[in-house]
Amino acid sequence: MLCGIDEAGRGPIAGPLVVSGVVLLEQIDGLNDSKILSEKKREKLFDEIKEKSKYHIVFTSAKTIDEIGLSACLKNSILEIIEKLKPYCDEFLMDGNTSFGISSLKWKIKADATVPQVSAASILAKVSRDRYMYGISEKYSKYNFEKHKGYGTKAHLEAIKEFGRSDEHRFSFKLKALDENIDNNLTSQAIIDF
After folding, report:
1. What is the pLDDT, as a whole number, of residue 184?
2. What does the UniProt record say this protein does (predicted)?
3. Beta-bridge partners for 96
4. By the 8 A CB rule, do 58 and 80 touch?
5. Cβ distance 8 to 125 under 8 Å?
């Protein structure tokens, strides 16, 4: 049996990284890359996937991303998924182009659109993250997280210019649009072209 793994939230400047692993126990029709599906379709499939699979979802906070870096957070999440789901499968496949140095992990570009287990993981990760961003949007109403989910839209960047970053923002993601410079001594930092 195959466990598909995918993430949501690698690129945003606010909110968590969410990584999901799925072992399908039954066939599910309509699976695809979560970014291609409508929100309504993703929500419907989310519940069906949870009913018809063994799955594990890992959230990593913006604070932890700042502390140890995105790659380490991805690797730790994948290792947790492997540990939790290895009783149900004998193969692990991640969407993308790297195994993060994990010997038992295979990878495939566009797996989220071509491998049902990875499509399912993509949907669980995206819906879980979107729900989280909706959930915090009232507390952080100045930033309109419910609209952009933490990605670097023009409106989001304008809100950061006006109000600064919240504790849900990634401080290690330096933004060219805000004329922020990277500190070469901090390996967890990334320059984001917004």
Report:
1. 45
2. Endonuclease that specifically degrades the RNA of RNA-DNA hybrids.
3. none
4. yes
5. yes
Encode 20-78 in three state secondary structure. Answer: EEEEECCCCCCCCCCCCCCHHHHHHHHHHHHHCEEEEEEEECHHHHHHHCHHHHHHHHH
Tokens of 84: 């939790």
Chain position carrying tokens 């993430």: 7
Per-residue b/e over 144-164, b at no fewer than 16 CB within 10 Å?
Answer: ebeebbbbbeeebbebbeeee
Q: Against a cut of 0.85, is the pTM above it?
A: yes
**Alpha-carbon torsion, ordered 115, 118, 122, 128, to 10 deg:** 140
Query: How high is the pLDDT of residue 68?
Result: 96
Q: Please report the domains of the chain, with CATH numbers, ordered by start residue.
A: 2-137 (3.30.420.10)
At 82, the pLDDT band (50, 70, 90 cuts) reads very high
- On the question of pLDDT at 192 being above 90, the answer is no
Q: How far apart are CA 30 and CA 28, in angstroms?
A: 7
- Output DSSP code: residue 107: E
In one-letter notation, the amino acid at residue 75 is K
The helix/strand count (H/E) of the chain reads as 7, 7
Confirm whether residue 6 is marked as ligand binding: yes
